[in-house]
From TrEMBL, chains A, B:
Keywords: DNA-binding, Repressor, Transcription, Transcription regulation. This is TetR family transcriptional regulator C-terminal domain-containing protein. Residues 12-72 form the HTH tetR-type domain. Residues 35-54 bind DNA. InterPro entries: BetI_C (IPR039538), Homeodomain-like_sf (IPR009057), HTH-type_TetR-like_transc_reg (IPR050109), HTH_TetR (IPR001647), Tet_transcr_reg_TetR-rel_C_sf (IPR036271). Pfam families: TetR_C_6, TetR_N. Signal peptide: none annotated. One of its GO terms (molecular function) is transcription cis-regulatory region binding. It comes from the Bacteria. It comes from Demequina lignilytica. Gene3D superfamilies: Tetracycline Repressor, domain 2.
DNA sequence: GCGCTAGTTGATCAAGCGATCAACTATTGA
DNA sequence: TCAATAGTTGATCGCTTGATCAACTAGCGC
């Protein structure tokens, strides 16, 4: 997109292009690389134009984060459409199966940068809440049709999300991929939603098994 | 420490004072605030002196992180000295009980900054390994005396640590303290080490209970 | 074909960062 | 007491960041 971009675009289009460039930078180089000059270079545009189209860089960073994470939630929501145990299975396999390191890095950086960027912190809270609502709905669906037994869906949802985030953040730093991640997470989730062992991620599909429970 | 610090100290002492100032800044304002000028101000010293005593700021940040986290590990190691189930109980209560937000923030920032600071990234891996070794030893102790049943101690240890980190990182952003955190984590851990429900954190001591498992 | 609107840019500012180095001086050993 | 040692500092450089603004001009409506 170097040559043809000399054209000048209608405001809405340019705005969208810059948002796209910011997202690309965030996923490739991290949220901290979403700078005036970084995004401008990605969009092949003068830095001042990026500033022109967003009230502040803090806002652009927050908006970029929200866009990336909301898209991920939509995707997962689509994959986890079946009945509750299958949906939990799809959720864990998708989020812990690897290949999402870019999004995980965005999450981790958002937590860190959020301490100094109030708008980003608000966006992080919003997105966490959105994920939480989605998972609570999943649990409620399971509780309604009797496939799950959950005393405190709110707390269980927070816990499952925290577990996933922590494991993914860990994978960001560790070198080797751990095949047992999905299986172990499945055992933990089963214990929290009153499902028998293997109901979420069947042991024969998982690579490593946890200890025996007689 | 403004007036008396006009004195000049022997190298070792000054070095220790600067390390202490760096640690204080990291715990109060975050790892990202550990800058030449930030640490110098905290130690009431010229910025050049901080540079004089450390090869680079990247190194000082990495060293500060390692110091904080290693101290936490020592503390927890001391608290978790009993038999395995009790040790797990102490571990979860200590790390998830709240009041450690400063250290959690340091962890999260280290993950994020580690992507751009190779020395810090190495320190993060080292400390994660140290925590992992400590937890694997705890699990091995339990397996040896028959109080735990763990097929893959390595994987279970990574999982428990990831869960703790994720829940703590979450607590960093969420406003209210969730009373169910310890109890739910205990259920998850019990499921992974072959312990009956309530063996790690007794339900009557915990605030919220997870679903029933018949 | 022309002019006005609106998209775009280069130049520039202040602030904060890490790093370097010559110069200053408190302290100590002879 | 005095000089050598070693701890300390101020000044300064180059770099990156976000932000602002006057000036330029492409493209649309008439």
């Amino acid at each position: 997109m170097p040559s043809t971009d000399r054209r000048r675009l209608p405001a809405a289009e340019r705005r969208a292009q810059i948002a796209g460039a910011a997202r690309a930078v965030a996923l490739r180089d991290g949220l901290a690389a979403v700078t005036l000059r970084g995004v401008a270079a990605e969009a092949a545009v003068a830095p001042a134009l990026v500033a022109h189209y967003s009230p502040s860089m803090e806002a652009l960073v927050a908006e970029t984060f929200a866009g990336i994470v909301a898209a991920e939630l939509d995707e997962v929501r689509y994959l986890a459409g079946g009945d509750a145990p299958d949906a939990l299975d799809a959720l864990l396999r998708t989020l812990l199966g690897g290949g999402r390191e870019d999004v995980t890095a965005v999450w981790v950086e958002a937590w860190a940068l959020g301490r100094r960027n109030a708008e980003l912190a608000a966006a992080v809270r919003d997105q966490m809440d959105a994920w939480h609502v989605a998972l609570v709905e999943l649990l409620a669906r399971g509780a309604a049709d009797g496939s799950l037994t959950v005393a405190d869906p709110d707390a269980v949802a927070w816990h499952v999300l925290g577990m996933i985030d922590g494991l993914n953040a860990q994978a960001l730093v560790r070198w080797r991929q751990d095949d047992a991640r999905v299986a172990l997470a499945a055992r933990a989730v089963e214990a929290m939603v009153g499902l028998p062992r293997g109901a979420v991620a069947a042991p024969e599909r998982a690579t490593v098994d946890a200890g025996e429970t007689p």
